[in-house]
Hints:
Blueprint lengths: L2 E7 L1 E2 L8 E2 L1 H13 L3 E2 L2 H6 L5 E8 L3 H13 L4 E5 L32 H9 L3 E4 L12 H19 L5 E3 L7 H9 L4 E4 L12 E2 L1 E2 L6 H8 L1 H7 L2 H15 L1
Parallel strand pairs: 1-5, 1-11, 2-3, 4-5, 5-6, 6-7, 8-9, 9-10
Amino acid sequence: MSDVLVLCYHAVSESWPAALSVTPDGLERQLGLLHRRGFRGVTLTEALSDPPSERAVAVTFDDAYRSVLELARPILDRFGMVGSVYAVTDWPGRSQPLSWAGVDQWLGGPHEGELAGMDWDELRALADDGWEVGSHTRSHPRLPELDDGALEDELAGSRRDCERGMGRSCDTLAYPYGAVDERVVEAAGRAGYRFAVTLPRGLHAPRPLHWPRVGVYHADSEWRFRLKVSPAIRSLRGSPAWAGIDGLRRRLVRR
Ligand SMILES: [Zn+2]
């Protein structure tokens, strides 16, 4: 049986303490572990439509930080892996730091440089080398909170932006904050996406436009990463029992 793992990263940095940033060393150890276990690194579309071998990993990066090009790409190259990048399409044409709720607190401080995003030339160069570039909407909103018109603009509009900027088709989408509901899934289908990925607490049953990813964060030690990617834990997280276990764990942690 094929084993398809979809990971979600954001930025890579030696010094940025943000939850969404991992160190180059950490990324290298994590991908090295998968490489040794026989995972081939492929694009999201390949992983979900046509996994090339028994074990495939799609390494996805949300938000299109420039650090993906500068620090992650050389590591993936060493393992013969390609990645997939999800760009917030209002940004690659601007020379401003990425900015939305969740990263805004880093503006104006010593780590502001980490919010540099890739421009279309850089994204096209990645795609020319086999990476996939998809949409992460136009402005990074919580999609379930939008009315129908704004939702269509964020989904269909960003797909058009991405195709114009990249000069190739845009078939995949990552929902900002992993926030999604049935109305959003249907709108993503109408906008023409083939695959769309989420970032849930538990790993719900996968559907092409509602595919769960395993998020990897700053605080993930090596053993935690091993747990997150272990087939047993992934299948447990995908079961109804997980919601109960996870809810209990979080209530205990809060005390
Ligand atoms: Zn994002």
